[in-house]
## 1
Amino acid sequence: MNRRRTLLQCSVTNETSMTAVGLRSERGPVLLAIMVSTGLVAIDATILATAVPSVVKDIGGFSAFPWLFSIYLLAQAVTVPIYSKLSDMIGRKPIIIIGIALFLLGSVLSGFAWSMPALIAFRAVQGLGAGAVQPMSITIIGDIYSVAERARVQGYVAGVWAVSSVVGPTLGGVFSQFITWRWIFYVNVPICILAVVLLMRGFHEKVEKRPHRIDFAGASLLAVSTALIVLGVLEGGVAWAWDSPTSIAIFVVGAIALAGFILVERRAAEPVLPLWVFRRRLLLTTSLVGFGVGGALIGLSSFVPTYLEGSIAATPLIAGLALAALTLGWPVAATYAGRLYLRIGFRLTALIGTAFVVVGTIVLAAFGLAPSLIVVAVACFVIGFGFGWSAVPTLIAAQASVEWGERGVVTGANMFARSIGSAVGAAIFGAIANGVIAAHGGNENDPGTVALASTGVFIGIAITAALIVLAVLAMPKTPVAASASAPPATDASDAVIAG
């Protein structure tokens, strides 16, 4: 074999599939493509926030602007498990490229939007693309890196989120103030093209071709049920009252669609979200961890900046930097998590991580009525550090328990759980804050009221952290294979191409 050739070989074989990527030394371009793709999704999650006033001034639609965020999250959450299943059938590469292409299309259309309804629709297209990019990035990491390496590599990807949390709002403000808000979307064009070029040139996989029976009925029912339930949770108490006919109808129809989905999946030849995912203890508990992580993260990202701005009059930039400490702690811990779980196992590593999360959230709650920028930043760093040792190892444990043909579904299920957790967390923590504000005169501009409402949310996040601990405790004590640093063919990145 000519090792100078640009081949990154990775054979991952089971009864139905085979993938191949090039030599260990050539994984760099693939990782760069993954980080660029992740950066697209990460930046767009925050870049629009600071530009909303400029957008509304230009095209109107102030009352509808929250949908710019809701529709993006909704489209992303609905499609994650569908893309993940398809990747197990036809490969990761076509799915992530389709996702980037959709994201590119949605970005261009958003830049040309002439009204708020049009912009909302085009943001949905972006969300459809993001639903493929994020899970495929994590799944490809699971394909081409060994168990020992994955935590470190996921630390790099988490670092992209850390940088994006600062760069996104800053870019949004710069574009809307000095150029035009439309460049918020146009800037994605060269990044999308770069990501596709890197993937096309550096990522090579070979998937065994065989007939598949696509689960159209299951995919449709899953999309409908998820869309309605997430929509009901996100907009309940905001766009309509929880006990309104609209809210009740949405949840009832969503529940019926969910019941229909379960019935279909029990009989489907190749179910889009196999029910065995929820019957395996390791996969169920790690998905519950993902659900809790999603809820805690949305609570922190939504209320920490509001808390600092409303209680001590911190500027949006300073408040954002305090929150960014969370996304800085995450990659720092994830970088070293691999060494830890190779020695003591996934479960104990995750327990140590959740202990950090609990301590950090308790500190936030305890000092909620005595606002301090330093305390918040340190607490956020500790929480992020804890997530690096809990969220990352539990996801890797789930991936390591299956072979290539199931890794997409397992990764997608975990990220799907995190998306649902974010929606539920947004609803619960929003209700807590609104309830506290209403009970204290409804003055949301009073620093004391803001601090009190935020403290209520922080207590809720601390309770969520405790529930994550319970989910980790329920994980089976699965040891890490001794060969994790030099994995067998089902996980290898240096194995010869099979067949």
## 2
Amino acid sequence: MTPSVVSNNNSPFDPSDAFLMSGIRARDSESFSQLYDRHGSMVFALCVRMLHDRDEAEDVMLEVFWELWDRSGRYDASRSSPLTYLMRVTRSRLIDRLRARRSRQRAELSSGEFSGISNLELKNPDVEPLAETLRTEQHALVSRAMGGLTPEQRQAIEMAFFDAMTHAEIAAQLKEPLGTIKSRIRQALSRLRQTLGTLEMS
């Protein structure tokens, strides 16, 4: 049995992310399907942007949502919103995949098996799969929300989520205090949540 409906607009036909997460914890497959339909395109777009490989992006997206279902008890509603948690899991899985790729490439270079083709593909990725994905309604909302950030906030968010950089790495590259970077990202995420909520209800 799923919990009582609590939605963003008081409509039982538009359950909130929090309600869907409660359903997932109760092993309700319909709640899982709805959350996947609501945020899957955004997760996939991020995966494609970071990996530049549609098939690999699909693999990571499946890993993310499987973790969401299989380890639903890890989510703590008192610490973050479901969307923030979902994006954190996505970023973690992407970092794992990128590190594995780099290790594999280093091994290929050391063994003399690296042909140079993979490196060329990384520098000149096929943008068509990404372009197709970014036409989705979800991306339009995110793009509009990103446009409301200051240039400094947008840069920090893109470095953190799209380039898989840690806060310390961002601070070092921008030559700014770590506390400033953490505060900037925290403020940007708060502003994105507010803006996305307004856009989705409009």
## 3
Amino acid sequence: MISPKKIAKIEARAKGGDAGAIYDLAQRSLSGDSFPKDARRARDLITRAAEADYAKAVFLLGVWAQTGEHGAEDPTKAAAYYKRAGELGHARAWLNLGILQQVGLGLDADLNAAAESYKKGAGCGAGQAAANLGNLYETGMLNKGEPNFEDAAHWYRRAIQLGYAEARASLDALHEAAGIPALMTDTPRAKSSSLWKRLLGLK
């Protein structure tokens, strides 16, 4: 909780149309930080920030549309929000859009489109997007069932560079199976997980 003076400054910036300040107030209304919890007010503020092309707000509307929080589940609308947020530079939005495209939730399944979204997400710094792309190459999903271990290794390495530690287990397994050099082989291996857990980033 911050001081009333700082809250007043944030409110003044929000009244002036500062999308970041509007988003800040929305988050405080959601959490009850400095304001009573008010989900309706928070959604109105998030919508205002999204209309001003604030990427975090657009992404959050996508999450809400996908999960049904603050309204009905609508994965098609979620995909549209994720695409817009991604175009505004939000890395996780490209990751989430890629997952929807890969599994065909809210739109037709399209592995090539998913791969492009993952590439864009990796380009914005999303390590999990790079790891998901590596998995598409490893399993042959992008080449009629024919694995591409070299490209898979490239994207797993990229995921590690971006801080997605779980990709190290995938790279190590690929190293053992196909003899492709792995990075940081002297470090402890991460615990292996199932395909879907690796794909969706679940613990």
## 4
Amino acid sequence: MKTKKIIDHIVQWLDVYLGKSGLSGFVIGVSGGIDSAVTSCLCAKTGKPVLALNMPIYQAKDQVARSLAHIEWLKKKFDNVKGYDVDLSTVFDRIKDSFPHHIQDGMTMANTRSRLRMLTLYAFASSHKMLVAGTGNKVEDFGVGFYTKYGDGGVDISPIADLTKTQVYALGKNLGIKEGILTAEPTDGLWEDNRTDESQIGASYSELEWAMQYLDTPQKSPLNERQKNIISIYKKFHIANKHKMEPIPVCHIPENLK
């Protein structure tokens, strides 16, 4: 993989897209994970204004520490970056208290956290006339659909959505991303028990990447039991989350009925 050339290509793509949009820069949520770390760095390399937001909602201390440390690193490395620490815990509590108790299940409230962060990013973007940069990678966005619809999936542009998690890590190493972020277990940060992505999905990102590639291969080799299980997991998530990856269905009315 030509890592440096890919970095240059994405930075140029961001710069050109921003220029065509007529807006002034990028807003991005920084979580303490590799995807947001790489994306925020790529945006910063354009030289255009970047707002990096840490948005904890009862977040684990190590996640918050990595997020804040990355923002400080960005600010020291790029003078076009500003950081904001926006604690949304109290706001989340108010939303939760306004919901009927019977809809306050785990998945509903996890997705609500993500959508609250999206709302916050767009508030900053609207105020500063900026684009919201997404942090989803290829496996999340087009493989298993591991994101919240109109949450972290609600963005203006997706700089790393054509890269696998493994490739994102390669970019991260080249960009000099902090070791703590490079070695941290991937997590969406939406659950009180701080569960990892792998524990939720049942497979690692490298395994999911393999499944994605395997299913796109015309001639397929025999599988062992673990591989069969990974394929099953991948297909289950892909089918269940297909609605996130396709355009919103529109009911087209026949002309003779209008």
